[in-house]
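# step 3/5: fold
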Amino acid sequence: MSIGSRISMLRRELDMTQIELAERTGVSFQAVSSWERDEHSPELAN
């Protein structure tokens, strides 16, 4: 399972939107979306 798939799965288990996850991690929702599509990986701090 890829990192993006895991992020998406855990976010859904927590009943969060991409926008909510973005706000909690201090990034844009576009960043969260690109993580989940495995276009980019999150920085370690995120």
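# step 4/5: annotate
Residues 3-36 form one domain.
# step 5/5: archive (pending)
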